[in-house]
Structure formats: structure tokens, C-alpha cells
Amino acid sequence: MLNLEKSAAAFAEAKELMPGGVNSPVRSYKSVDCNPPFIDHALGDKIYDIDGNEYIDYVGSWGPMVVGHAHPKVVKALQEAATRGTSYGAPTCIESDLAKLVMEVYPSIETIRMVNSGTEATMSALRLARGYTGREKIVKFIGCYHGHSDSLLVNAGSGMATFGVPSSPGVTKGTAQDTISVPYNDEEAITKVMEEVGDEVAAVIVEPVAGNMGLVLPKQGYLKKLRDLTEKHGALLIFDEVMCGFRASLGGAQAAYGITPDLTCLGKIIGGGLPVAAYGGRKDIMAKVSPSGPVYQAGTLSGNPLAMTAGLATLQIITAEPEYGKADYSRELTLKTKKLLLGWQEKAKAAGVAIQAHQAGSMFGIFFSEKDVLNYEDSCNADQEKFKVWFKAMLEQGIYLAPSQFETLFMSGAHTDEDIDRTIAAAEKAFAAVAAM
Ligand code: PMP
């Protein structure tokens, strides 16, 4: 039995200090009805709790730790940067260095603005889309998460297109009424909405590979349909690649599916584990952002030198600049992920447990479902009770997974073949536990 005594005491104390004991809800393990391990440190492919337990980590801080934890090159760069001061609130060359690297890999980004979180990136991209088009409505997809800004905390539940019901107290009806939610992967639903109100829509924002309802891939032709519809109605297409950027493929979902959005939001990875995100895209649109244009957006810590340093060091490794010498980092991650998922599928089948396994590059996940999962409704219909049993059985065996079926898992360059074999062996026992329910 996993000993989590110290973590339990730390959690009890934290609950007196922070809402639910955490600074971001999913960390509370509420959805799996157990206490979270409190983390002491992480190195490479492993994460260690304050009780001394070691886990193979497939959460990777929810995506950014693509080169593994505390990679020596990232740590060295950060140590050097820290001796030069932690923040200036003034321009630096490293902001341009990171911008250039990101734009090389994402040619649709002709101008970029660095911010501090994915929430800020999407919120600012929407303000820009509204400022640029002079329109007020936005369209999002049910089950896609774009951070917690008011206009995007509108969801409306599954089913048909619904107009503006806030999904959190504190989001005003006025804000919510400009957000239209439509089911993901449903060409008819989005076509109908655009036919009805497309000329009032500033932007359609989508997770082109959806990672916040579990991992759900776009159907063939779906992203092209969104591109065509937005073009037809003069609305902007915003790809929120905060999670799938540098993950679905090196060039993100836009490269993997060959679709060029007007604006892209990136996050997580481009800060290598420090708080960074960005939005960018067509030059003529980005020219509206202050101070070159009238759409206001700012940040005291935006472009922070430590955060830029960690991001640059991380991206240099995965984009295989000659100095780092890896042939194709993304491809290697994709192959490792495939191996792991094949193993899981085999063990699930042998145990007689129906799963749907999804992969996009180095992102992966499974659903306990007989039928494929194409949208939020399908994801909600997958068996959450089975997930809880599976999750706990994996944790007991030292495999650290996201504590909710509505999340995605991530492979890193630090994961070894031995990790993958161990994770497949653990899955065999965890599927047996599910089968015995
Ligand atoms: N967009 C997507 C697709 C995300 O996955 C997330 C966070 N998981 C966000 C936006 C918000 O990013 P942050 O938590 O950095 O505000």
C-alpha cells in the first residue's frame, strides 16, 4: 500500500490556507476521491513526493516538461540567467530569440506577443479578434477549455448549440451571451450557427486537437471545415494550441493537419515549465495590438528573462539545433507513445476491458468506453468509475497519471524503454482490477 501519510498532513494544512488546499482545482484529486501526493522534487522521467515515493511521471506539469524534469541544459541556462537578475520590466534580446524560434516552427505566426499564462493568451486573442473585426460574438466548442477568462467560461453542456449560459458563478449573463458553444466534431452544428449569425462572429476558437475532455482528435476534414466557414463569414479562426503546440507534432496541430489559422495561442512548453504563453498570427491582425495598434494588452512580467530562458533552452532541445544533436525529437516521442498505447491496448483486451486509446504525437489518453469518443458528450458517457479504479491501481504501482479522464497524458524525452515496459506491466494489473469490479 502506498504510504501517503506526510502528504495527507500537508494537504490538511493546505486546506486551511487555500481553497480546496490547492492553487489550481485538478490538483486536489477530487475527481478520484483520494488525497494528492505532495511533491518534493522531480528529475528526468520521475517525480517524488514528500513521503519518499517515486513515480514515473506522465503528467509532466500538464505538458510543458517535454524534455523531462530538471534537464541539465535547462537548469544550467536558468542558473546563469538568475545571476543576471530575475526581472527588468524592459526589453531584452532573449525575447526576440524565443520569438524567432517559435515563429520558425509556426510559420502562421508572423508577429507574436508573449504573456504569462494560457488564459491570458486566449483572452487577449479574443479581444484582438473583436477589436480587429468590430464584431462581438465568439464561437467555442463544448468540452474545449481555453483557460478561465469570463468569455470562455461558457459551456452550456452537451447537446445542441446553446447560446450563452455561464458555466461558473461570477460570469455575467451579459458576457456569456456573446459566447456561442457548439458540439466538437459536428460539422452540421457549426455550419448552422455560422449560417445564422456568422456575420456577427469575431472568431471561432478551437483546440484543434482537444485535450481537455480527455484526448479527442478532430475528424478528417473537420478543421478544414472550420477554416472554410470562418473565411466565408469573415470571422477569424483561432487555434488554441496551448496544449497541443509542439506536441501533436513539432509544428502543432496546424502542421499535422495542414490548416493555417489566423491566430494561434501557445503556452506551457514555450516556457519550459516557467509561466509563459503567447499569442500571434497574421501581421495585419497583430498590428492592432498596443502599442502598434489600439487593442490594449500588457504585462509587468511578460517576457520575463528566466521564463524566456527556460523556454528557449527547452525548444532548442526539441527542435534539435545542431548543438543538441537529436535527429528528430518529436518523432522519437511519438514512437515511444505508440509503443506504450499498444501495450495498454493489448493488456486491456486480454483483461476483457473495453477502452478507446487516442494519440496525437506525444499526447495520449484512454477512455473506458465501448464506442469511440468524438466529443464531450461521448467523453462524459465513458465509465468514470472504471477510470478511478484504474487510476488508483496505477498510482499504487508508481505510475503518475492525470487524476481525471478529462485530462491528457504526455510523453517526454526522458522516458526510457524500461519505463514503458514497467508502465505496461502496471497496466496489466490495473486492467485486472477494473475487470474485477
Ligand atoms: N488552453 C488550453 C488548450 C489549455 O489546455 C489550457 C490549460 N490547460 C489553457 C488554455 C489555459 O492555460 P493556463 O492554465 O496556463 O492559464
Q: Can you tell me about this structure?
A:
The chain has 437 residues and is α/β, with parallel strands linked by helices. The protein has two domains: 174 residues, Aspartate Aminotransferase, domain 1, CATH 3.90.1150; 247 residues, Type I PLP-dependent aspartate aminotransferase-like (Major domain) (Aspartate Aminotransferase, domain 2), CATH 3.40.640. Helix 3 runs parallel beside helix 10, helix 6 packs parallel to helix 7 and helix 13 crosses helix 14. The two termini are 19 Å apart.
Which descriptors would you attach to this protein?
Aspartate Aminotransferase, domain 2; globular; eight-stranded mixed beta sheet; binds 4'-deoxy-4'-aminopyridoxal-5'-phosphate; 437 residues; four-stranded mixed beta sheet; cytoplasm; alpha/beta; Aspartate Aminotransferase, domain 1; pyridoxal phosphate binding
Briefly say what this structure is:
The protein has 437 residues and is α/β, with parallel strands linked by helices.
Within CATH, the superfamily of the largest domain carries the name: Type I PLP-dependent aspartate aminotransferase-like (Major domain)
Overall residue-averaged pLDDT value: 94
SSE string: HEEEHHEHEEHEHEHEHEEHHHEEHHEEH
Helix percent band: 25-40%
Shape: globular
Going across the major beta sheet, what is the strand order? 4-11-10-9-8-5-7-6
Number of strands: 15
Ions, cofactors and other ligands present here are: 4'-deoxy-4'-aminopyridoxal-5'-phosphate
